[in-house]
Amino acid sequence: MTRTAGAQIGCQRPSRFWGLGCPKIYHEAEDTLDHYCLSFSTLPYRGYGTADVEMAGDHWPSRPCIYDELMMKNLENIPVEQRRRTNPLAHVFDEFMAFCQSRSLFMLHYCTGCGAVELPPVMTSRFDGERLGISPMVSPRQADVLLVTGYVSVKTLKRVILTYEQMPAPKYVVGICSCTVNGGMYWQSYATAKKLSDYMPVDIYIAGCMPRPEAVISGMRDLMEKIRTGKADSWKDYFRNYDHYLGQQQRLFGPKWQTPTDIIGEAEHYGLITGNTRGEHTRLLEEHQKRLEPLEMRL
Question: Do residue 62 and residue 187 come from a single domain?
Answer without folding.
Answer: no
